[in-house]
Write a structure and sequence with these properties.
Elements (H helix, E strand, L loop, with lengths): L10 E10 L2 E11 L4 E5 L6 H9 L6 E6 L2 E2 L5 H6 L2 E3 L12 H8 L8 H6 L2 H22 L14 H13 L5 E5 L7 H18 L2 E5 L3 H7 L2 E6 L2 E6 L1 H6 L1 H8 L9
Parallel strand pairs: 3-8, 3-9, 6-7, 7-8
Antiparallel strand pairs: 1-2, 1-4, 4-5, 9-10
Length: 267
């Protein structure tokens, strides 16, 4: 796995509280993600995992607490600006444009890096054309080859099997050139072979590209195999955090998955 950086955390979640009406989705969740690691978030259904992702990506604003990216408080920064800061995300339910080609879907991920103005882009003037060509070259060299999707680059996404669509969504996120990649159940709906391929691609992104990954995943085999550290949530409360082997044996984690009461772990 990628060597972790000792320069300080890339992401800090500080005392996050999030409620919807009388329902508490997150209650004082705190954690730190280190540069260059694969950090997994696990827990039973309704534990608050997706709420954490939505707070990190800016879809939700916590009532209390802060999100700090590389020392900068981004708690109130809108989602599109967070993408420009290097945060990319995939979704549990695929969010691709099914009527567009694979390449066009992936190119949409690179839009945050395009600098041509509206006029140049609209009538495809020289600078816009050169920029688009450079974008395509970068995508083909850094994304399509890495994820082994050269053979489907011109195919319409909606005609592809589900497993390949999941790979295209990962490719689109990588086109942002993220420093922090949020992976929301990337193995969901995949068969054994597709799951093994996806795990390998995530490791390649982490090791070869140095991308820090935060992973929500129900496949505990994958979590234990590829994660550096794991945090466990239950009913919006952090109940454990640490290396995979230690978390797997943690009594609060065992209780949570067996449906017994648990004690929260201090942030």
């Amino acid at each position: 796995m990628s060597q972790e950086d000792d320069s300080g955390p890339i992401l800090v979640l500080e005392d996050l509280h999030l409620s919807f009406g009388g329902v508490k989705a997150l209650s004082g969740v705190s954690s730190e993600v280190r540069p260059g690691e694969i950090f997994a978030i696990i827990g039973p259904n309704g534990a608050g995992k997706t709420s954490v992702f939505n707070v990190i990506s800016g879809l939700y604003h916590p009532q209390r607490g802060r999100v700090i990216l590389e020392g900068r408080d981004i708690t109130r920064i809108p989602p599109h600006r967070r993408a420009g800061l290097g945060i990319a995300r995939t979704f549990q339910n695929i969010a691709l444009f099914k009527g567009m080609t694979v390449l066009d879907n992936i190119k949409l991920g690179a839009h945050t890096h395009l600098r041509s103005g509206l006029l140049a882009g609209g009538i495809y003037l020289g600078p816009a054309r050169r920029e688009e060509i450079a974008c395509r070259v970068q995508i083909e060299r850094e994304v399509i080859d890495l994820l082994e999707i050269e053979g489907i680059r011109k195919k319409v996404v909606g005609t592809l099997p589900y497993g390949l669509q999941k790979r295209v969504e990962l490719a689109r996120a990588l086109a942002i050139r993220p420093r922090l990649l949020l992976l929301d159940e990337p193995m969901a709906g995949l068969n054994v072979e597709e799951t093994e391929d996806m795990a390998r691609f995530i490791l390649d992104v982490n090791e070869q590209r140095g991308v820090t990954c935060i992973l929500i995943e129900h496949d505990m085999g994958v979590v234990m195999d590829i994660s550096h550290r794991v945090v466990v949530l239950d009913f919006g409360v952090k109940i454990a955090e640490g290396p995979p082997d230690a978390v797997r044996r943690h009594e609060n984690v065992v209780r949570a998955y067996l449906g017994e009461e648990v004690e929260p772990v201090a942030g």
